[in-house]
Write a structure and sequence with these properties.
alpha+beta, 3 helices, Thiol Ester Dehydrase, Chain A
Length: 149
Amino acid sequence: MTTSLNKNDIINLLPHREPMLLIDELINIQKLKSAIAIVNVKKNSFYVQGHFPGQPVMPGVLIVEAFGQAAAALTAHGLDKSTYENKLVFLMSVEKARFRNPVVPDCRLELKIEAIRSHGRVWKYKGVALVDQKKMADAQWSATIVDRK
């Protein structure tokens, strides 16, 4: 099993498309356990244009979304294709989300994520967001795999 995924690999696993596909790579993959997602936060990223003019910051809700996308890619990559084909992963809850430092453009945001447990189609994860080894945010969240309509 591969230990990294590029953007095209991620596109083949997730239903997200530009501009909402936030993760650029998934590296250090340990099947169904953990990975590091890379988000290249750029000056021209859609979310920093108006958040905030003159002092651009990646919105916290999009850091949480990126956590969710990373977890969905980790899970889809580890499961048999028939298990996730024609399925979507929906965020169910976000717990203990803390935003410690602003994430500003022209940085490499690393999301270290870990699957804590799974029960049927429900998965629980935790993650920490880092820039140059500095903690920017952390959270726990749950998601479920549902049939595509």
